TrEMBL record:
KW Secreted (keyword) present: yes
Top-level taxon of origin: Eukaryota
Protein name: Pectin acetylesterase
EC number in record: 3.1.1.-
Length: 416
């Protein structure tokens, strides 16, 4: 049965990104972020048997310059594995958009996306982080880690802005966190999976080969990117919203020096932050989990408010069932671009795919979309089963859904 998830705010606030240039806009960002924090907690509200994992701040990180935007130490949540999973490790990189201007980065310093002072002291582990076999059949007893996101550049920046006391240290946070986890037993891993959602899904692509290089060749290492396939797409008015935003972020945060030279030797740094230009050169087995009509990209890349001042597309972007035929053709073209972008990637036997025709975003961290009785399926196989089959080499997984509206298993997002 199709499930519709209704969110009461624009997905713009889900990622906490602000492009506003006025003080009123900054105040609006703060209000949206507070509402977002409330809704996120409500979405995964702890039940009687919830698994609440405490936050661990990385001691000594500041001495290495590995700090959040505001200079506070980064953190993670670790739930130890048990029995057969004691020597297996799953690292989940948190998402949450990017900041591309001084103002938007200064704003993030006042939230958990830019400061560990505001991070939750305990997080509910669900979906791919669950410790219950009936909720997470293949990874439930692994060492499971949620690495918090507080740099605003997908764990890839290097620099600072002294005038505004901003630290762009995403790459150092990544390296320091990996050192910490290796010391806590990850160096003995028999198998390891680097995962992430949204901006964290992009980070799992950017850092995939680095993650593999941490381990001896005898360790089975793979990567999973959930909702991280951000496309260099043209919006409905002919502009390039995401490219413009990435350009500012790459320049401001010094990301270019940490991008793969296999890409930067051929393209400009901004292009090399787009996964479509990276995935073909990644040597480590990689699984792409993405909604063909990614809800964040529909909202903020394809139909940004700035490109639709008269609101002609508002009803369509808030609820896909309100799109007219020409608007739906535009969204179908976006799906075609996504399939074209992964064409070469899909040719490799070691890679995996689950591209469902849903209006969704991040499907591995929510229990209802990861593994449940009515979770999304392609060919009657749930996302968790598809990822598990791929990781353990049980069967090749190259699942691509037929176009909307053929899939009635989607948990589509509708915005009010």
């Amino acid at each position: 049965m199709k499930r519709v998830l209704i969110w009461v705010l624009s997905l713009w606030s889900v990622v906490g990104i602000g492009w506003s240039r006025s003080e009123d806009g900054l105040q609006e960002l703060k209000a949206k972020d507070r509402l977002l924090s409330f809704l996120e907690k409500d979405a995964v509200s702890p039940g009687a048997n919830s698994l609440m994992i405490p936050l661990t701040l990385i001691q000594g990180a500041a001495s290495k310059g590995a700090v959040c935007l505001d200079g506070t130490p980064p953190g993670y949540h670790l739930d130890r594995g048990f029995r057969s999973g004691s020597n297996s490790w799953l690292i989940q990189l948190e998402g949450g958009g990017w900041c591309n201007t001084i103002r938007s980065c200064v704003f993030r310093k006042t939230t958990r996306r830019g400061s560990s002072k505001f991070m939750e002291k305990r997080l509910n582990f669900t979906g791919i982080l669950s410790n219950k076999a009936e909720e997470n059949p293949d990874f439930y007893n692994w060492n499971r880690v949620k690495l918090r996101y507080c740099d605003g550049a997908s764990f890839s920046g290097e620099g600072q802005n002294e005038a505004n006391q901003l630290y762009f240290r995403g790459q150092r946070i990544w390296s320091t966190a990996m050192e910490e986890l290796m010391a806590k037993g990850m160096r003995n891993a028999e198998q390891a999976l680097l995962s992430g959602c949204s901006a964290g899904g992009l980070a799992s692509i950017l850092h995939c080969d680095e993650f593999k290089d941490l381990f001896p060749s005898t360790t089975k290492v793979k990567c999973l990117s959930d909702a991280g396939l951000f496309l260099d797409a043209t919006n409905m008015a002919g502009g390039h919203t995401l490219r413009d935003m990435y350009r500012g972020m790459v320049t401001l945060q010094g990301v270019q020096k940490n991008l793969p030279n296999t890409c930067t030797s051929q393209m400009d740094p901004t292009s090399c932050f787009f996964p479509q230009n990276l995935i073909a050169n990644i040597q480590t087995p990689l699984f792409l989990l993405n909604a063909a009509y990614d809800a964040w990209q529909v909202q903020e890349s394809l139909i940004p408010s700035s490109a639709d001042p008269h609101g002609f597309w508002r009803d369509c972007k808030m609820d896909h069932s309100h799109c007219n035929s020409s608007q739906m053709l535009f969204l179908q073209d976006f799906r075609n671009q996504m399939l074209s972008a992964i064409n070469g990637f899909s040719m490799s036997n070691q890679n995996g795919l689950f591209i469902n025709s849903c209006f969704a975003h991040c499907q591995s961290e929510r229990q209802d979309t990861w593994y449940a009785n009515d979770s999304p399926r392609i060919g009657n196989k749930a996302i968790a089963a598809s990822v598990g089959d791929w990781f353990f080499d049980r069967t090749a997984t190259k699942a691509i859904d037929c176009p909307y509206p053929c899939d009635n298993t989607c948990h589509n997002l509708i915005f009010k």
